[in-house]
Structures are given as C-alpha cells and as structure tokens.
Specification:
Blueprint (H helix, E strand, L loop, with lengths): L8 H16 L2 E3 H8 L3 H14 L4 E4 L4 E4 L11 H10 L26 H13 L1 E9 L3 E14 L4 E7 L4 E6 L3 E10 L10 H4 L1 E8 L7 H6 L7 E6 L3 H7 L2 E2 L13 E3 L20
Length: 290
C-alpha cells in the first residue's frame, strides 16, 4: 500500500490542503491549516513535518513570515482535477481532495468538451495571488501563436470555457485569454505597474444592470417568465462591463434594435439596449449593432 493510503482520511485531507495551497496559491502557513481544520498548533506542526517527509522538494519555510513557500521543484503529492479545482476556487475550496466526482445516473450535467490543464491553472492562480507578471506562449484563432507578457487578475468561466482576465503588455490593455490556448507559462521577473493592476481595469470595475425580457416573438412568454423567475415580466441582472457580453451570448439574448432575431434562436431579449454602449466583446453579442 502507498504511504498516503496508510494515513487516515483526516490526515490525507490536511496534507491535500497543504498540497493544494502550495500549488495554487504558492504558499501556506500553520495558521491556514489550523483555521481550516480547527486543529492545534502541535498537530499542524506534525502535518507539515509529514508533508515534508513525503515531498521534501515541494516547499521551504520562510522564517520572517513563517510561511511555507512553494519550491520550483514542486511535484504535486495529490492529483487535483482541473474541473473540480476550478469549481472549488469559484465557490470556496473544500478539503483539498479534489478528485473527479462519480457522475449520477439520474442527475446528468451537460457534456464538457474543453478541459483546462491543471498546471496552467495552478500557475495562473499563483500569479493572481502574488501579483506576478507571466510570460506565455498563446495561440489565437486570428493571429496564431505569440509570445506575450501578461499580468493576470481573475479566472472567468463564460459558460463554455475558462478565460484569464489579464493586462496584456503587447496590446497595452486588459483583455481575456482562453486558458486552454496557453501552451507554456513561466514567471517573468518584473513588478506589475500601477496601470497593469486590477484597480486599473475599468471594464472589470464598471457595474452594469441587464434587464432581460421574454422574446417578443414568443407565443407563450409566460413559459420563459417561469424559467427565469421573472418579476413583472423582467429579470434584472447585475454584472460588470467585462463579463456582460459573455452572459448575453451564453443565454442567446436578442440585442438587436427591434428584437428581430427569430424566437426559435433567442428566447430572451435585452430591454435596456442602451447598456450595450458600455460593455466589452460587443462582437459576440447576438444582434448587437443591428
């Protein structure tokens, strides 16, 4: 039996949490472990000692901060499934044992065709947590492969795939990169400038309201009102200018001036069309500009 399998489930949970924090945040302290599992200082010390015994090249103790930091020689002790990790990061990570769930036979989710690489996700998360600049080899559908320096600050799921929101030094603006199109990612030894930091991302910081209504072409709009729990025939959604385009596309919202897209294609329509002037990614919004 492998050494990890000989441990109790509680021990494996705590070691997996250490492993996860090092991989995705780049550091962890005893207080992080104590706070997560309500364990004592002596028990936390034993857990870190055991982790170092099992993975001696994964971390080092930085004495001034009393944090354990991830080493470049890090090799994950546990397998962290990318889809589970991303869901956990979005909702708040659990016990660290991020293994694929056994699918239910009576409650079936839609098939996912795009699966991000765990190592890429981990590198992006560490950079976000620590404010690092990254060098990436990125492949675009329009311009092919390029070598870029980016300053990431958020991971975003647009309903189909994961993007990283980042300042792109090549275009000198904040934009979104599809995570699965990143071929390589390494840390670039530089400090992010004020104009490259999250506070400078105006589209991300701009909150907007979308008012959605049943598509005017529907014969029975009440069905859509029930689907979305609309009040007085409207659904009010709060989002930001950087994400609104994804939401409108993902839910096939007719944003044309006279809601002229067939109701067979769009079951929702945007009521407050004036908000389109404030959002990013207008090219992907159904009917925008028509």
């Amino acid at each position: 039996m492998e050494p990890l399998q000989e441990l109790s489930h509680g021990q494996r949970q705590r070691l997996a949490f250490i492993d996860f924090c090092l991989q995705y945040f780049g550091q962890i302290s005893r207080q992080d472990l104590i706070g997560k599992f309500a364990t004592g200082l002596a028990a936390a010390t034993r857990d870190f000692a055991l982790y170092r015994e099992l993975a001696p090249s994964n971390m080092k103790l930085v004495h001034p901060s009393r944090h354990y930091q991830r080493l470049p020689t890090f090799n994950a002790l546990f397998h962290h499934d990318a889809e589970v990790v991303l869901g956990g990061l979005a909702r708040g990570f659990g016990d660290g044992l991020s293994q694929p769930l056994i699918p239910s036979q009576v409650c079936v989710d839609a098939v996912k065709l795009i699966h991000p690489d765990t190592e890429v996700i981990a590198a992006l998360m560490r950079a976000i947590q620590q404010g690092e600049v990254l060098t990436v080899d990125y492949v675009s559908t329009s311009s092919g492969e390029s070598h870029r320096q980016i300053v990431p600050h958020a991971l975003v799921n647009n309903g189909q795939r994961w993007h990283v929101r980042a300042f792109d030094r090549q275009s000198q603006q904040f934009t979104d990169f599809v995570v699965t199109r990143i071929k390589t990612v390494t840390t670039y030894e530089d400090v992010a400038k004020p104009a490259e930091q999250p506070a400078a991302d105006s589209a991300w910081a701009t909150n907007i309201e979308l008012i959605l209504i049943p598509h005017p072409g529907l014969t029975h709009p009440e069905a859509i009102m029930l689907d979305y729990r609309m009040q007085d025939g409207e659904l009010h959604l709060s989002t930001n200018a950087a994400l609104a385009g994804y939401l409108l596309r993902g839910w096939s919202v007719d944003c044309s001036s006279k809601h002229q897209i067939s109701s067979g294609v769009c079951q929702l329509a945007l009521k407050n069309l004036e908000v389109l002037a404030t959002i990013e990614h207008l090219a992907i919004v159904p009917g925008a500009g028509h």
